[in-house]
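Title: Prediction job returns without error message
Component: structure pipeline
Severity: low
Priority: P3
Assignee: unassigned

Description:
Job completed but the reporter wants confirmation the result is attached to the right record. Sequence as submitted:
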Amino acid sequence: MPPTLLVLLAIASVQFGAALAKGLFDEVGVGGSVFLRVLFAALVLMAVWRPSPRGRSRNDLALVAVFGIVLACMNLSFYSSIDRIPLGAAVTFEFVGPLGVAVAGSRRPLDLVWVGLAAAGILLLSDLGQGGLDGLGIGLALLAGAFWAAYILLSARVGQRFEGADGLALAMVVGTALLVPVGVAEAGSDLLVPWILAVGAAVAVLSSAIPYALEMEALRRLPTGVFGVLMSLEPGMAALAGYVLLGEGLAAREIVAIMLVVAASAGASRGAALAPRDA
């Protein structure tokens, strides 16, 4: 399968998984949905990679702990955001994080153009606070973007110290532990309902297992810049998933705003040292 198709399938898997998770909000709330997503992702990764913290230095364990905290906070803030604003808009605001990482790693004058395009897109999408988007939802999406940027930087360090997905699997366990109080407090015994567990497992597979495997394979066969350009299509795919599964339509102004951010991210990613991996 061509590596470009692998990346597109990974993007679609992540965003349709997010749309599926949003359908659980009425049943178990945001906290319960996030907890199930991270829990099953941790179970899958631990079963496949079987990492062990034994023999690791304190610095390595501390790095994994911080990585897990970032994963938990990123997912919680992002899911809280899509509870308030459409999925396509949330991912567009969130993409400010990886875009910032791409621009920070480069010193090209052309990057100022991409920053300007992204800023124009964000301002157009938010409509300077006069539009129909919830302000708190926008803020939560931007917060998720900041955690996504931290995820990209931390994943590079974790990848240097751990083999394969060992570090990510251990971090997912940390994230799960942190989200237990949030999930149980909001969902309670509903977390034990069989069909809810099944949907939560499907969300985890779509949002973590499948895209991680596809992106790992694509990165072996694609330059980092090309991979980053393809990943920049994520806001557009999120808008499509929101429309197909959730009936979230977008105004012409919002579509143009998303296209501006996609173009800015694609341009910045071409020369970036770190690709905007899915989180």
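Comment from assignee: result matches the submitted record. The mean pLDDT is 92.
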